[in-house]
Amino acid sequence: MAANFGSDNVTPACEPVMQALLEANRGTAASYGADDITARLQVRAAELFETEVAIFPVTTGTAANSLALSQIAAPFGAIYCYEAAHIVTDECGAPEFFTGGAKLIGLPAADGKIRPEQLTHEFGFADEMGVHHVKPAAISLTQATEWGTVYGNEELSAIGALARRRGLKVHMDGARFANALVHLKCSPAEATWKSGIDVLSLGATKNGALCAEAVVFFEPGLAADFERRRKRAGHLWSKLRFLSAQLLAYLDEEVWLKNARHANAMAAALSMGLREVPGARVLHPVEANEVFVEFPEKTVAALESAGFKFYRWPLYVSRSGVAIRLVTSYMTPKSDVEAFIAAAQRWSAA
Amino acid sequence: MAANFGSDNVTPACEPVMQALLEANRGTAASYGADDITARLQVRAAELFETEVAIFPVTTGTAANSLALSQIAAPFGAIYCYEAAHIVTDECGAPEFFTGGAKLIGLPAADGKIRPEQLTHEFGFADEMGVHHVKPAAISLTQATEWGTVYGNEELSAIGALARRRGLKVHMDGARFANALVHLKCSPAEATWKSGIDVLSLGATKNGALCAEAVVFFEPGLAADFERRRKRAGHLWSKLRFLSAQLLAYLDEEVWLKNARHANAMAAALSMGLREVPGARVLHPVEANEVFVEFPEKTVAALESAGFKFYRWPLYVSRSGVAIRLVTSYMTPKSDVEAFIAAAQRWSAA
Amino acid sequence: MAANFGSDNVTPACEPVMQALLEANRGTAASYGADDITARLQVRAAELFETEVAIFPVTTGTAANSLALSQIAAPFGAIYCYEAAHIVTDECGAPEFFTGGAKLIGLPAADGKIRPEQLTHEFGFADEMGVHHVKPAAISLTQATEWGTVYGNEELSAIGALARRRGLKVHMDGARFANALVHLKCSPAEATWKSGIDVLSLGATKNGALCAEAVVFFEPGLAADFERRRKRAGHLWSKLRFLSAQLLAYLDEEVWLKNARHANAMAAALSMGLREVPGARVLHPVEANEVFVEFPEKTVAALESAGFKFYRWPLYVSRSGVAIRLVTSYMTPKSDVEAFIAAAQRWSAA
Amino acid sequence: MAANFGSDNVTPACEPVMQALLEANRGTAASYGADDITARLQVRAAELFETEVAIFPVTTGTAANSLALSQIAAPFGAIYCYEAAHIVTDECGAPEFFTGGAKLIGLPAADGKIRPEQLTHEFGFADEMGVHHVKPAAISLTQATEWGTVYGNEELSAIGALARRRGLKVHMDGARFANALVHLKCSPAEATWKSGIDVLSLGATKNGALCAEAVVFFEPGLAADFERRRKRAGHLWSKLRFLSAQLLAYLDEEVWLKNARHANAMAAALSMGLREVPGARVLHPVEANEVFVEFPEKTVAALESAGFKFYRWPLYVSRSGVAIRLVTSYMTPKSDVEAFIAAAQRWSAA
Predict the structure, then answer these.
(1) CA–CA min distance B40, chain A (Å)
(2) CB-based contact (8 Å) between D97 and chain B?
(3) Is residue C33 classed as helix, strand or coil in its secondary structure?
(4) Which of B32, B76, B225 is closest, CB to CB, to D74?
(5) What is the pLDDT of residue A332?
(6) Is B169's pLDDT higher than 90?
(7) Model pTM?
């Protein structure tokens, strides 16, 4: 079978996560999170982030993002983000649904990273408009970004400082947080609350879990009544231990960081190989597990015909070719990377 | 350890469901429901219900109920149900959230079953009020009910016929559908669309799944755009195969019906034994896997002290005693039932 | 033309209100409330209520109620009220819409007045249910009530004290606040914040305005961001001076209280006369401008045939007859009252 | 007093509208739109638009726009419009609120007019994204636009045809519809449904009414249940005759078109004069009653100091100067126009 670079969500759950599920499946347990495993997850998360946190397991990234945003943005609030952020284009209006109508204000960013100056400009506009405009409430940053780049901690901190001055909260969509973390080579605390992040959507599904994500508040007071938001969205599992068990197994260095390191390494190898391919143009620094590369249309068509799986990226418009997205995962074999590079070589030579 | 009759959601997943999860966890698979297992579930559901259906796996009963209701009730709609239905008291406003503000109109019902005459009266009121009142849109029935009773098919059909005449849709909250079905001794088709049900929340978690429920539409046309509702609520799993696999394993007669038969038998044994206990009063016909029984306060306190797990039922107010709810499950051992009866005997004699 | 007791909203605007509109219609004025008349209204309201208030003119009672409730109840909140309160039966789900899905929990009350014991019971239920239930957030009281009775200030205070202990806010639907006030013979301050009311929907339309109501917060801090709620509901007039002018003219003792006194006096006269009619049964103390009276069906039919306008009251079910509602207004002539009593006499003798 | 070009909403109501209000204020009338004046408005609107229409008076433009959009876009729908349309920047999230979370997708347009090619591109993107993206539902066009330009009927028709092919509905925000109409020199029918418009927000407040707008559906079937939407938003007046009376008076050629002709003529005179002013740059064709003109900062500051009222336009960013918006109205005196031109001359010469 040809290599599948379509998404990291086509993977199965990794071994330690499945093992944890099996172990959790013994005997009865208190429901709705009153179980031991969930209690241990809470402890583990505090330890991992080196501060008291409130962590809430949920099933999907869309749920994590939207629940988090609904906690920090009023229905008449503005949420600033990249104009092609996942929350804008890929969640079918979930943030608007969960917040009760808050507005996502999308900002352009060639590499997926928004800048403080853009935010300052928007705040100025909001100030002039007053009550006629939605009220600046939150900023949402994707880490790693939709273009496979990673915000540096100083970039995050600059945005965080601006947010604090204006009374806004900062959300991080960390669907690929582990991938960003291994790139940054810093602690989870440094990559989040020490850099101004108030609430994190911590992804695990793409990096080895079966169906587990979490919302993490770094100031537990910010999570007041969040339990009820989760419940009324249908995201409080009765057998919550099975979500918590996945996360507890996942948040072990030998699982989440090891998995992410492998995925990032495969992406790096892929981009390195493709940079040598005539006619190929790697579009952005490859800092996580996604490679965006422009090819002539005929190369892309040939790669598709050969059975390789990947997406043509609809947001990229160019006269010179087609951009495709290649995503690697914790289980991408080196051979898939090599096969793809070889095929690209072959077809671009043709 | 003393017996746990607190809820059927304290159980682990049953063996066939866990086995199915393990089998589904092999290699990559298309995400968001484009996988083979989900396709097979669709086929199996149609076969089971003897008609073309649209089935949508989700994670929780609250999600299933609220998504289903949002599909059949406008934001300015009225949903008629029992006044202490799960959707009214136990879902933290999820139906209002998902529907965008529809109103649940709760009707009294000593045994949890609402009657056509009550609905007719309500429709008359709505007609008089016109535009000032919410518009009659849907009826939601819980099967088995919140009091452990079961609507007979003729009871359902009478409500279904009334609904059709008025243009309303009928939803069934089937969190314990399997338990009702084995009581009714009829086919799934007879228990649902042949009796006027338009959409079913099909529960599996309480009866042996890990985290699986489904919304089933018996007229696929009624499911138009439902996919987007599920997505924007954060209830579309990327690795959907893992939900579908649970349901596929569950909907095998040797699993769902066998599990339910056992739970119901244990409840029947419990109620039979308790009817012999002086001072105990079984409150309703025990037709599924729940037993409601009134005891003097001191008996209840003694049973609690002895370590038995169950709920004091807040909706029941009586001068003569306290009502408790005992729920049996697919894995309740006969010995737990016997131990409870013996303890009740002992303490009521005291 | 026969007398119209259908509603006090069939009346035209009274002379002083129309005069104020004409006077406000001179030259340009700053829009969206930055005009002088709106500023004067703010001053007048503070003077009238003897405390600093935040007052927001709006167009309808439904808007006033729903906006007020959305400010004090979260989307996952519970709002306790009389089960047939206007906000429950007559506003087509507006409170659910504006709050983003909060739940109105209706309590029975023969005379339209809910009691502290009922609330205490509900809070106990909510406490037991925890996160599965909506969170107690607010209490809404209608003054005068839907049955034409009036809460005494000590009754309000008892509810207010309970609310404060639990951290709930109290809303008053004062669609007929002036009518209640003249009955209570107390100051506006005593009838509201001194008796525990946090926010008032102050009605004027039924009592002589053209289209003016207001939301009044007695603790301006409670009104944070309320401006944006009003705006995004389409209830911020560009030419706001025309709403403010109505209210400013209305809140003159010679207008609002005089108008209400007349309406109440006519209702009192009506009920006094009807008490003498054989077969008629006045249903509740007549404390404002509404009279509910039970007649035999044939009397009601005869009165309708004679051209009198009133409503048969759908919420009242009795074997002995039909209840009708008679509403008097600031412009009800004494002769209409006398004509109605005479007709009732005549037909009940028949 | 110096001239006020801040907005056309600073004007009082014009004489015929006030006269109609006074005439409507006689005796009692059926409430909630069952009155004669509202019936006559319905007839008048059908006559005016040369087809059967459903017309719903409301109080504000924000209400008209948002209610209209909520009727044609599902909560998971996409509404395409100009990126700085009033519904995007000036209504505090009202469209999101009323639709239950639909997404406004803003498209760039230098002159405020979006083009079919832009829509086609967006639809292609939505098709590729499938269920992950909001569903194309509606297009909203502002007429006259936010930049004072006017869509030609052939431009509207091209968009209308595209919408019909894709099953989308087209909304027109006609806050300044009369101004556009007198520019187009065509019939109201030609300017709306004959050019593909499904629903119109018909503005009157800016052009001489006190507080009246209307939602007009050109296919009454499209208005199903709209009554309930209006009611639950608090936009159904009890004394609706007073809204209908304004509109009935307004929709007389000698009122709405005459008023608009004057406003447009004043804007034309203003722009003609300003084109002669050194350093001034009129930014777009002046086709309605708004003039956007760029001046050096010092000229703008001088004009402000001289007491002239207008807005600096925040959406316009330029190195060479500041853009201001000048709005004329039905009552702008020629002398104000002349005074402003003279002042601009004087200060730019300085």
Answers:
(1) 18
(2) no
(3) coil
(4) B225
(5) 97
(6) yes
(7) 0.97
